[in-house]
Amino acid sequence: MTDDSVIDAAGLLADPTRRRLYRYVAEQGEAGRAEAADALGIRRTLAAFHLDRLAEAGLLTVELRKVSGREGPGSGRPAKLYRRADREFGLHLPPRDYASAAHLLAEAVERSGAEEALYAAAREEGARRAAERGADAPRTREELAEVLRGCGYEPAAEGGEGCRGSLRLRNCPFHSLAAAHPPLACGMNLELLRALVAGYGTGFTARMAPRSGEGCCVEIVPDPAPDSKNNED
Question: Going along the chain, which residue ranges are E strands?
Answer without folding.
Answer: 31-32, 60-65, 79-84, 155-158, 166-169, 204-208, 218-222
